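Reopening closed ticket. The problem is back. First fold of the pair:
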Amino acid sequence: MQASGLLKDTIILDVPKEAGQFDTVLVRRGTDKLKEISAAWAAYGAQQSDAGVVLPLMVLQVPNAPDHNDIGKALDTIFTHWQDLPEDAVAHVFGEHSTQTFGRHSVPYISPERVQDSSWVRVLIAKDAISTGWDCPRAEVMVSFRPARDKTHITQLLGRMVRTPLARRIPGNDRLNSVDCLLPFFDEASVKDVAKALMSGGDGGEELPGRRVLINPVELKPNPHIPEGVWDKLLSLPSQTLPKRNARPIKRLTSLAHELAVDGLLADAGKLAHAEMHKILNGIRVRYKAEIEAARTSVMTVEGKSIKADLKGGAMTFDDFLEEADYAVIEDAYRRAGRVISPDLATTYSAYLARHESDPGDMETALMEAHVSIAALGLVPQVRETLEADAEKLANQWLNRFRVEIKNLSDERQDIYRQIREMSANPMEVDLARPTSWIQATTIREANGAETPLPTFEKHLLCDERGLFPEDFNSWEGEVVRAELGRIGMVAWYRNPSRASQDSLGIIYDDGGEPKIVRPDFVFFVQQSDGTFTADIVDPHGIQFGDAIPKLKGLAQYAERFGRHYRRIDAVAKIGDAFRVLDLKESKTRTAVFTAASIRTLYEGADASDYLINQSRS
C-alpha cells in the first residue's frame, strides 16, 4: 500500500527545541499549516480539472480528561490566526454524544464515520484513536495535547491519518504527500519513539518502503534562479521501472485500449486491440499447425484405461479405451484456454472464427467448432508466449505513439497510464515528474544529543527561502558535489531522490537474476556554448557493498543505451585517499565493467582515471 501511493510518504513531526509551554505557539503553527495545505490543495484542484475538491482538516487531540477551557483557548488561537474560518467549522467525537462547551465555543458532536464526507468540519477535537476502523484521508494536520508518555495514543491516531485523499501519490509534491503532527509537550528525544513506530506502520515490523518521518524539517520549492531549459532537460531524461513478476500483457493491452478510448485518444481502441490479437492468433495457427492439430485431437477425445481384475486367478489386465468428448468436456477445455489467452479474447476470437471459418447458417455448430479450436490453442505452450510478446509490443507502441497526448492529461489520468506502463513484463522507460515541493531535514542529531546544522549548497533545483539546499552527505559525497559545482558552465544540480518516487531517476540492474533499481546520486546541468543545456550523471559509488558490481554494470548498460542524453556518466569511488572515476560513456570502460570480477581492481586499473577534487575540469 505504501509503495502504491495509497498512503502518504512523509510524516512531519514538529516539536519545540527547548523546554516550556508551547501549546499556543504550535496551535498557531498548526493553523498556518492548515491554511497552507488548504491553499495548496485548492491550487492543485484548479490545475487538475478532475482532481476533485480536497478540504483538509486539523485534528486537535486532547487527553482523556481534558480541560475544556484549555481547548477553548486553542480554538481562540485558531480563529484569531485564521479569521476566514467559519465559527461552525469545529466538531468533536467525544464519547459524550452531545454538544460540548469549550471556553466561549459551543461545539457539536459528529459521528466519526461522517467526518470524511462532512466538508464543513475543518477542526476536529478527539481523544484517543477515535474509533476502530476510522480513517479520514483529508485529515492533514494534527496538534496533540497528549504528554510524552502517551506515545501510543498519538501514533494510533496519526496512523489513521496517512491515507492519501485522492488514493494516489501527487507526483513531485512532498507537501501534498505528507501529514503534519505538532507535539507541544514532547521533546526531540521522546519523539524518536513516535518516529520509529510510524516508520514501521506502528506494528514493530520492518520499515515501510518510501515512508519518511522528519522532525522539524523545511519545505523546499523550485529554485527561481534555475533556467527553464534545465527543467526541460531533467524531464527529458529516460528513467526505468521494475518489470512485474506476474505481468499479464494481454490484460495490460486491453486496459490500455480502454483508457485510450475513454480519453478520446484512439476511437474503438478495444476493437482494434482484439482485431490485432486475432491476426496474431491466425498467424500462430499457421506457424504451429501440426502441434495445434495434435492438441485438437486431444480435445475431441477422452483417453483412459480400463482395469480388469481376475479375483480368482489374481491376474490384472489393463485395456486402453477412447471415447469421443461431449459438450461439457469441450467447454471445460475452452474455459481453461480462456485463462491462457484471456476470457475476453477467447470470446471475441470465437465469434471471429465462427463468422469466417464455418457455415454462417449454423451458428451453434460454428461456435462449437471455434471453441474446439481455441481449446486446442490453449494446449500448445508456444501460443501463450508468442501472443503475450506481441501484446506487449503493441501496448508499448501505443504508449509511445500517444506519449505527448498522455502528458497533456491531468495527473490523475497520467497516473493510470503510469500504472499500465509499469505492468510490463520488461523494464520500461517512464517520464520523470517535475518536483514542486520537497520536505527536507535541516539538522543532524549527534550521539550525545547535540544538533548540528546540515551543510547547505547553492544551485540546487529546489531550495529554501535563502536559495540553499540542506543535505546530509557522507564526507566524500560532499566533496564530489563541491568539485562538480566548481566546473566551468555548471548551472544547476539535482540530488536524485533515493526513494521510489516519480521525480526520481531509476536505472535497472540485475542482482543475481533479480531485477532491482539503482538511483544515481547526482545529476548536474551544464550550459553549452550554444546556450542549450546538457546533463551529467555523477554517482559516488561505494565499493564496500556486495551489490556494488551489479549496480555498476546496470549503470554501464544504461550508458550504453541512453548515453546520447548525457555529456558524462561517471561512477566515482574513493580508493584509500584517492578519488577514481570510471567514464561509462567510453565503450572500452563499459567492456571492462561488464567483465569485472573485482570492483577494487577495476577502479585501481587503467580503465579508471583520477577524479580531480581540488580543481575543476571542463
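Second fold of the pair, where the issue appears:
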Amino acid sequence: MTKIIKILLVSTLSLIFIFLSTAYFGLHLSLPKLSGQFRSGHLFESVTIERDRLGTVIIHGQNRQDVAYALGFAHGQDRFFQMDLLRRNSAGELAEIFGKKALKLDKSRRFHQLRKRAEKTVAKMDPKQKLLLQTYANGVNAAVAEQNLSSFEYLLTGTSPQKWQPADSLLVIFSMYLDLQGNTPKRDMALTQIKRLYGEQMLAFVTQNSPYQAALDSSILPIEDILTPELEPQLLATALMSTIEEPIDIGSNNWAVTGALTMSGRAMLSDDMHLSFGVPIIWYRAQLNYPSATGETIQVTGVSLPGAPAIVVGTNNKVAWGFTNAYIDTADWIAIDENELLTTEIEVIKLPGSLSSIKYPLLLSKFGPVKRVNGQDYALAWVAHQDYAVDMELLGLETISNVQEGLALATSFGIPIQNLMLVDSKGNAAWKPAGAVPSRTNPANVAQSPDSFQGVLWGIDETELPQVLNPEHGRLWSANSRVISAEEFSRFGDGGYALGARSQQIRDRLFESEQFTEQDFYRLQLDNKAKFLTPWHDYLINLLSDEPVRFAKDIQFIRDWQACACADSVGYTLVRSFRAKLLDASFAPIETGLKQINVSLSPIKRYLEPAMWQLLEDEPSSWLPEPFLNWNKFAIQAYADSTQELLDKHSDNGALDSLNWGKVNALRIQHPFSKQMPLLSTLLDMPTVTGFGDSFMPAVQRSSFGASQRFIVQPGLESQAIMVIPGGQSGHPLSDYYRAGFDEYANHESTPLLPGNILHKITIQAVN
C-alpha cells in the first residue's frame, strides 16, 4: 500500500510539474520581442523603439505619422489586453469575454451608445487626424500579429484578440469620460430624488456650501443659515443601517509656480492624477522624437494612455502640462412626460461564442437616452454624447513654444473637461479649463423641465472659458474643488466638486515658502497631515471623555494620533472610521428611502460634511433614533460600532494596537484576474504595501486608489524632473518590466522622467 501511495504521489507531482512547466513555457512564448528588426508597409520612413531599465519607450521617427505607428506597436506589445478592456468597457462589450456576469455593466454602458458615437466621430474627423488613428491602429495590430502566442488573459478566457480600429482609440477616451464624469449624472439624480422624496429644505440642507473653499481668486460661495429639516417619524422607524459608499472618482492634484519662485527662473509644475489602481497601471512612459514641419527637433516626454497616440501629461522641453478633473457641470437630466415621443433601439450584446447574444432595448428621446426612476422618465443630456466630445487635438501641445499658445489650444481639446496647468521655460504659469464644455447657460443640480432644455446650445462646444496667467503671487493650484470664481460658478455649475480641504492644504503649503525645488514639490505631493480630520479628532476626544474608564485605551491612542495618516497611527484609523460611521448612521433614513428606488447618497457623501456638523450642533430630536436619549449616546454608539467593525476585519486578537493605518489602508494593486482567482495573486499582483495617505489631504491613497503617477518638472531642466508610477510598463507577468518602478513608488523614492541607458532596441523598416 505504501508503495502504491508513493507511486500516486510521484505521478501527481509529475503531472503538476508538467502542467506548471507547460504554463511557464507558454507564458514565455507570449513575451514580445523587444530587440530586433521588423518591416512594415505602413511607414513612410524607418522608426526605432528603444527601452531603458524602467521600460520607458523612446521612439525616433521622421514624422508624426510614423511615430504614431511606433507608439501603437509598443502599446500593442506591452498593453494590448488592457487596451482591449478599455474599449470594451466604454462600448459595453465586456460580456463577450467574461460572460453573463458582465451583462449589468455592459447594459449601463450601452445606455450611452459610445461605440456608435466613436464610429460617427471618426467618419467626420479631419483627414489628418483620421490617418493618424489608422496609422496608430496599424502599429498596434502589427505588434499583436508578431506574437507567437496570445497573452495569457486570452488563453484563460478562451477568446482571441480582435483587431484595433481607429474608433477604438476614441472609445479609450470615452472610458476616461466614464471614470471622470460617470458620477455626475448619478449625483444629479440623487439630488433630484432627494427633492422629490424629502423636499426643497432637505435638498438645501445636504448641499449647503462648505467652509472648505480654495478658488484661485479667493472668492467664497456664501455660507448661509440653512434650517435643519424635520424628519418624519416613519423615516426613522424604517431606516436600515448600511454603508454609504465613498465615491472614488475624486482625486488629482496639480499646482505650479512662476519662475519668480525658482532658482532657475523657469516655472515649475507638479501633477499627480488620482485614479483607481489595477495591474497594469493605466499610464505608460514614453518619449517621442521627430522633426517638426520646419525641421526643428520635437522631443516630448511623459505618459501616454495605451490605446491613444498622444502624450497625456508631459513636457516638450519648452512647455510642460498636467491635468486634474475639473468637475464643471457637464450633465443634465430632463424630466419628460408620457406625451414625449420616444423611440426604441435594440443594442445586441454578444456573449462568449459567436452565436450567443442578448437584445437590450434602449429608450431614446430628442434630449438623450431615457431612464425611469421612481415612476418618472428622465432623459440624459451629457457632454460625452455630443459630437465635440472626443478628438485628437491634444496632440497640439507637443509643438507649442510657450504657455500662451497652450491656453489658445485648450478649448479645442476633445477630452473630459480638465484643469489644465501649463508652465514654460520662460517662467510663465497658467491655468485654464480644457476639454468639452456645453454652451448651455443653465446648469442645474436637479432635473429640468423640457422647456428649460437649451438643445441648440448643448450642441455647441463652449470656447469662452476662464483662465489665470501669471498671478501676482506666482502660485496656482487645483485639486478637484472649485477653481473658478464664485461669479463663474453660476455659469458653469457644479459637476461634483471635491470638498476643498485638499485644495486648501496645498494652497497653504505653497504660501509657506518663497522658493521651490523639485524635491519641495515631491514632499508636498506626499503631505499626509490630517488637517481635515483635526476637528473630528477633537470632537471624538471630548465625546469619549464622557466614559473615561470604558474608553481609556481608545482615548490614549486617539491622543497619540500624530495628526497624520501615518502608517503606525492607530488614532488616525479610529477617528477616520468614526466619522464615516457617524455619517452613515445619521443619514441612514435618507439612504434607506433612496435605495428603495435604486438611488444612493454615495455620489454626494462628501457634500454632507457641513450638514453633519449642523446636526451635531443642533441635536434635532427628529433625527435621533430610538432608543438613544441624546446625541452623545448616539455618537458614542457609532464610535463603538465603527471600532468593532475594524477589529472584526483587521484584528486577530481584538486589540486596538492592531488597527494601525498602514495595515487598515494597505495598498493592494491587483490584476483583474486575481480578484476572481486568488491563486494567481502572487504571480499577477503588485506586492502589498503599508498604507500611507488618505482622501482629504495631498497624499491621496486608499487601498486601490491614489496617485497613478507623480510628475514634477521645470521645462528645459528635464534632467532634474521626476516621474514615478506605481507599476511597470508591461502587462506580461514574466516581463522584466511588469513591476519595474513599483518599489520606488511604494518607498516614496523618485525615478527620473528622462530615459536612462538603453537596454533594448527595435528597428522597423519601411517597405515602400
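Update: turned out to be a display glitch only; the data is intact. The first strand starts at residue 36 and ends at 40. The two ends are 72 Å apart (CA to CA). Please close again.
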